């Protein structure tokens, strides 16, 4: 017990320390967010826009899909431009052309080198100078800059309408025709784009860096990495090496001799409990997992195809009904839904077991209500997404019922509330089974950790309610990453580790002491880097150097525990040899082994590739990011959710025998397809973009002329092979679940029971 006390103390200290950092520097995000001026006026006094106009533009951008159509400050989709970088570059070029005509009577490219250098010097001086008057809350721009803004706005007005002159560009960007029909809302959106570009070009008071830490790379105004960027990048690499070395030394010298493994029982202990009504009703959850998984995979294939044909699917103009922005929204949202459903199903299966093999009163009713609530949220949010992007949804209802515009939390606020209520209901159902068990005598430390992880999953999704439709985007990003990073990558990780330990312990395959010790130690390691590591997503979102320092330091530590996951994979894999009956759960175990592999490669290697500030400075918003996202989100949480679903299926259908051919196809084709997708297409495109971003600027790496060149088009076509392999694997595992839930009578009579 003393050992547990030390581990609990370490975990609580880690949580207290790291959340204090997250909260303290979160206040910094609020304090130093780039100002949104009450008025933007020209030096001659002409009013250009207001704070309300800029925020109206933010809501207009949200209504067309927001981060699912291009990106802002590097966060969002990758086919259309980053609107901040693109607007800024277009405005700078327009200013140079206007200046050349005004001062030399010819186009800028016709000027002598000395004349061009003179104008570029004046350009940098004007754009980096902060002309915002904080006391009056007014931003003053020159008449020439106002004219450059008007030129840029005219281009965007055509681009987001159905102007035939830019139809080809819309196809290159995978934008549907007449993306934003209202001319007034297009004008408002232009104001918002201008403001994000202004913050990216203007030096913060008292600093030589812009509000976005000199991001994006833009040579025309000398936007380049700051000294702090380079310093903290080096620190992060050093800490990574030190952390890995320290972990290896601790593993070698501090790890005590492992106790003898308990003798494996002759019969699976999980089958000693009679299935309860609530457990029997979990089949529909497992079906929902693979139904949404199949839908997500098909939407992903369609999204990828739009990157080569823009508005068409093999010649058919499908974007009239299912534009890129919509299918990418559905692709991401369905992933979060089915992965979460897999985790919920695993928890609901464990709850009666924890409660002594019986359901608390009305448990089945609660499980059924939760399922249909999930279905309602999925259907409602998907319909709302469609109506918003089709611009059918009234503007005043979009945020609540349609599309919030923020990646991974795209669903309307009403559906977000519904999802939160559903997760809280799941927490209540879990606690009804856990609390009575906690009151029983004996070692309850592992169960206490499982309870804490359930509570964290149930409550921390609520962080998404700390911002609203018109919240400053820097503040919104802070809270959004509480969900995307902290909720998903943090607490789900702890729940998964603890739930697996609890399952293996309940099976009698590992001792409770070993399972508890490993779970508590893993939780501390994950949380130490994971909680403050949230800030590595915010380097260039209108924050200051302290955010960069904390994010770079702790995100390096996130990678450290991932280096030992190969050992964890081996430990999980060898469990199947502990007892003959473990052969019955071979395939769920195999999926758990894949989780460890992709955690190391996808979350570790590919994650750290984009973590240091100097790396992210050049590659934020490029295809290097989805390389990490696919490998980590599906490779880790996707395989984990599928493993949970298969495990639950195996126990609620005791006579089921997995089809070896189907499962081999599912496992190897899913892994093979993911490898092909990433390493023959997405990553090579990202690396080529990285070279362009470092040499020319982010605007160029995301531009139409660059992205439509032959090599990149070919590489995006090559992705089709990986997608097809992956889809076949997805269909195989989905079909296994379907026939497992509804076996043919002859098959059911011909198999042995799990207990034999």
TrEMBL record:
- What sections of the sequence does the record tag as coiled-coil? none
A Pfam match:
COX1
Limits of the Nitric oxide reductase subunit B cytochrome c-like domain: 37-217
Transmembrane spans: 7-26, 230-254, 285-308, 335-357, 369-393, 413-434, 446-467, 479-505, 517-535, 547-567, 587-610, 630-652, 673-701, 721-742
Which keywords label this protein?
Membrane, Transmembrane, Transmembrane helix
Which SUPFAM superfamilies is this protein grouped with? Cytochrome c oxidase subunit I-like
Q: Where is the signal peptide?
A: none
What is the protein name stated in its UniProt record?
A: Nitric-oxide reductase large subunit
Provenance organism: Zobellella iuensis
């Amino acid at each position: 017990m003393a050992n547990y006390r030390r581990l609990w103390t370490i975990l609580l200290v880690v949580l207290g320390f790291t959340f204090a950092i997250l909260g303290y520097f979160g206040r910094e995000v609020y304090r130093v967010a780039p100002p949104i001026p009450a008025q933007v006026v020209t030096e001659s006094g002409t009013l250009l826009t207001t704070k309300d106009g800029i925020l109206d533009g933010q809501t207009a951008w949200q209504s067309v899909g927001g981060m699912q159509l291009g990106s802002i400050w590097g966060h969002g989709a990758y086919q259309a431009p980053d609107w901040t970088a693109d607007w800024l570059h277009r405005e700078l070029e327009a200013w140079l052309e206007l200046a050349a005509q005004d001062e030399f009577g010819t186009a800028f490219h016709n000027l002598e080198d000395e004349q061009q250098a003179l104008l570029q010097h004046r350009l940098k001086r004007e754009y980096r100078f902060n002309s915002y008057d904080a006391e009056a809350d007014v931003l003053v721009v020159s008449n020439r800059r106002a004219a450059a803004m008007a030129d840029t706005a005219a281009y965007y007005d055509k681009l987001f309408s159905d102007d035939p002159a830019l139809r080809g560009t819309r196809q290159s960007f995978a934008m549907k025709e007449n993306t934003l029909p209202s001319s007034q809302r297009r004008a408002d959106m232009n104001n918002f784009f201008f403001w994000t570009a202004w913050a990216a070009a203007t030096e913060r008071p008292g600093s030589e860096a812009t509000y976005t830490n000199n991001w994006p790379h833009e040579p025309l105004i000398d936007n380049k990495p700051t000294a702090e960027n380079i310093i903290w990048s080096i620190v992060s690499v050093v800490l990574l090496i030190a952390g890995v070395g320290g972990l290896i030394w601790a593993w070698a010298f501090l790890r005590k001799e492992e106790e003898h493994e308990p003798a494996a029982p002759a019969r699976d202990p999980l089958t000693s409990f009679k299935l309860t009504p609530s457990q029997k009703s979990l089949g529909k959850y497992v079906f929902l997992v693979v139904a949404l998984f199949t839908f997500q995979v098909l939407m992903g294939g369609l999204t990828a195809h739009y990157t080569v044909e823009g508005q068409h699917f093999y010649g058919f103009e499908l974007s009239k009904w299912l534009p890129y922005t919509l299918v990418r929204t559905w692709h991401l949202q369905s992933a979060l839904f089915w992965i979460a459903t897999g985790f919920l199903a695993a928890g609901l299966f464990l709850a009666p077991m924890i409660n002594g093999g019986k359901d608390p009163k009305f448990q089945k009713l609660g499980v059924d209500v939760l399922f249909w609530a999930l279905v309602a949220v999925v259907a409602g949010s998907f319909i709302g997404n469609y109506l918003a992007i089709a611009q059918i949804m009234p503007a005043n209802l979009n945020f609540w019922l349609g599309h919030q515009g923020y990646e991974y939390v795209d669903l309307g606020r009403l559906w977000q509330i519904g999802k939160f209520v559903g997760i809280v209901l799941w927490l209540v159902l879990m606690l009804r089974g856990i609390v009575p068990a906690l009151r029983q005598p004996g070692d309850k430390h592992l169960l206490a950790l499982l309870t804490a992880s359930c509570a964290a999953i149930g409550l921390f999704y609520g962080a998404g309610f700390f911002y609203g439709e018109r919240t400053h985007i820097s503040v919104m990003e802070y809270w959004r990453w509480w969900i995307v990073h902290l909720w998903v990558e943090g607490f789900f990780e702890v729940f998964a580790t603890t739930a697996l330990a609890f399952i293996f312990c309940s099976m009698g395959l590992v001792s409770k002491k070993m399972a508890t010790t490993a779970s508590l130690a893993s939780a501390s390691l994950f949380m130490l880097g994971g909680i403050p590591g949230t800030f590595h997503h915010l380097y260039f979102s209108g924050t200051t150097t302290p955010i960069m320092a904390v994010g770079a330091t702790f995100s390096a530590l996130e990678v450290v525990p991932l280096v030992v996951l190969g050992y964890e994979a081996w430990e999980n894999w060898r469990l199947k040899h502990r007892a003959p009956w473990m052969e019955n759960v071979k395939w769920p175990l195999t999926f758990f082994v894949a989780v460890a592999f992709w955690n190391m490669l996808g979350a570790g290697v590919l994650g750290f590739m984009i973590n240091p500030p100097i790396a992210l400075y050049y590659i934020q918003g490029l295809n290097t990011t989805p390389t990490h996202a696919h490998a980590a989100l599906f490779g880790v949480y996707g395989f984990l959710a599928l493993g949970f679903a298969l495990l639950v299926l195996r126990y609620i259908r005791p006579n089921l025998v997995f089809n070896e051919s189907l499962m081999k196809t599912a496992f190897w084709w899913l892994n093979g397809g993911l490898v092909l997708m990433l390493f023959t297409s997405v990553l090579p495109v990202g690396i080529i973009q990285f070279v362009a971003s470092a040499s020319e600027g982010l605007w160029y790496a995301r531009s139409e002329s660059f992205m439509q060149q032959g090599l990149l088009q070919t590489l995006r076509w090559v992705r089709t092979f990986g997608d097809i392999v992956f889809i076949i694997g997805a269909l195989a595992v989905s079909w296994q679940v379907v026939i497992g839930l509804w076996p043919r009578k002859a098959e059911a009579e011909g198999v042995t029971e799990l207990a034999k």
